[in-house]
Write a structure and sequence with these properties.
By secondary structure, this protein is of the alpha+beta class. Helices cover 24% and strands 23% of the residues. The protein is globular. The N and C termini lie far apart (62 Å).
Amino acid sequence: MNPVQQVIDESGAMHTLSKKIGAGGQGEVWLTEGGRRIVKLLNPRSDAEALRRQLAFVRRLDLNSLHVARPLAVLKAPHVGYVAEFLGDMVPIKGLLEAPTSELLRWHINTGGLRRRLRLLAHAGEALLGLHARGVVYADVSHNNVFVSGPINANEAWLIDLDNLSHDSDPRRAIYTPGYGAPEVVCGSAGCTSLSDAWAFAVLVWHTLTLTHPFIGDLVNDGEPELENEAFAGRLPWVGHSTDDRNRCSTGLPVDLVLAGKLMELARKTFEDGVTDRKRRTSVSDWVDRLHTAADQTVACPECSGTYFVLEAACPWCDTKRPAVLPARLVRWQPGKGLVEGAARLGQIPLTHQTLLLTRRVTEGLIGLEGRAPHAELKLVDRGVALRPAPGRGLWVAQHGSSSPAPRAVDARGSIIPPNGWMVFFEEPDKPQRVAVIGRSA
């Protein structure tokens, strides 16, 4: 494709292309000057009228609450393509998969570490899940089409390339990035569905966390080129197969350090049970839930700043002893009855001497963008636990042990409670809700 500096859309607006941020079989994706728009330039032989019809379909979808690059306008001839909205300072998640040959651990930490990767993947999954909730298939989940915040202290994730959204699953129109296509799509026996999206998302999760492809183990790496095609078609065992170790992988990061046990189970359901039975694959919803939960179960090393799962006795990146941890167990509260035991487990969050931001996903069970809003800050201090509500949010504390406690409100200045036997309420205590029970006796 010849270099293009400027394009004009159907409304007459001119867009100056400043940086190519992606390329594939369909064409190229460019960032425009100002960083708030992207332009997808399709191959010159592409059907401009078909693109116009496709984008008209996408525009009719309600995508307002999703982090996706919504198409805004079709390009005028001689170019075939479209302009889409974008968020500044975004980069392809591909950059988190391309590890250097040296200083791997330092690079891993400097690019955000384990906790950030888990959270970014969860947020990308939320966008994908939102599309599925609207009855459409994304089709081309890959490291090229998921964009994440450039600054490592930000965790936003967006999906681009919405021109492939569809309701149907015609095998003749199947689109996928090599390495991410589900076996039935690669073999041409079925088209793209939410289940093939779930497969591709599972590949992205595994690849981002371990820095290896789930089907490119030593057997494929050291074998003939044709073996890669066999692997992508699901005709070879994946690298973590429970009974077939022919394709084990000796590269990348150790699986037990970057995937909690439950995440490994979800991967096995997809890449082992779900190769031939699509319905047995882990759903995107389950991935999102467990990725968030895994991120919640990480702590930061005070020495190297790396993050790792709290069950480790020492930092796996630098061997520094794990910092002191105080558990905060999430339990359901029923006014007049007290803590409701035996209900579905809501999880346990480790408190350390670093400030922990609890979002409304944790405190209220909200999902998507609503769930990312901050609710409270908690931090382990010498005298107990310091806590403070986020602006506009409520927070109450009471001693544990009574179904009719005398809670007190925590104002914007914050408060400190003892490290054992206290409860934190996130709504008025006379309402059913989640509460955090603080302490080792919890």
